[in-house]
Amino acid sequence: MAFADLGKLETLLCSFSDGVATIALDRPDKLNAICRQMHADFRTALDALEADSSVRCLVLTGEGRAFCSGQDLTENLASEADGKPDLGQALDRDYNPLVKRLTALNIPVIASVNGVAAGAGANLALICDIILASESAVFVEAFCRISLIPDAGGTWVLPRLVGRQRALAMMMTGDAIDARTAKDWGMVWAVHPDADLAAQAQGFAAKLAAGPTAAFARMKQAVDAAWDNTLPEQLAVERDLQAECGRLDDFIEGVTAFGEKRPAKFRGR
After folding, report:
1. Would you tell me which of 12, 34, 113, 186 could form a disulfide with 67, CB atoms 3.0–4.6 Å apart?
2. What fold characterizes domain 213-260?
3. What is the number of other CB atoms lying within 10 angstroms of the CB of residue 109?
């Protein structure tokens, strides 16, 4: 099934235009809290997206006044033999596979954060490649309020974005970080008026979708590898990936368009 044919799932709204797939969390009465059905719907949506070569950028957002308030705490959790909850099971079954799939996509992944992003919802936004936020958006590592540690990749991505001290302060206090502060700290690329965010996110995503997406995929690979590499190791990564880029049709098109003084028409291959 093509991604454009998905439409409304039980907890997600899926749409497609100009090479841009949009997945909107659709539980506005629950501030888009994440539940088991939402994880199942994500698996359906990502299966279709990964199989659809016409999708060249993904926007993740929320319906209503929130991006995502995190895990739905009213949902019954799996329990161990002693009756206590087994939170690790939920991570292994749902959250960790979702984070791995989103970060492994070979297209740009944009978070359009239109309000509260709390707990796992904050980290779902932060693991995206680029974040655009509304002026009313806030980011809250709320886990300490229920005596948990950040999950959904939060302990990995947040220190890399803001540094150890700010990350731990966010985690230990659970304080809300407003959109302007998040931008100043490097968590967010741009902040837009609430009424303009959706259009700005779609325009930004359409620009990326029209770009050299095969090269973008390799940019993501190179940046992700850099966290653990020495400089000589990273130079080797750049060499190998640049060699791949040089064999792409888009490279020939880019050079030809430059010589002909016209905009390049990239096809993502």
Report:
1. 113
2. Lyase 2-enoyl-coa Hydratase; Chain  A, domain 2 (1.10.12)
3. 22
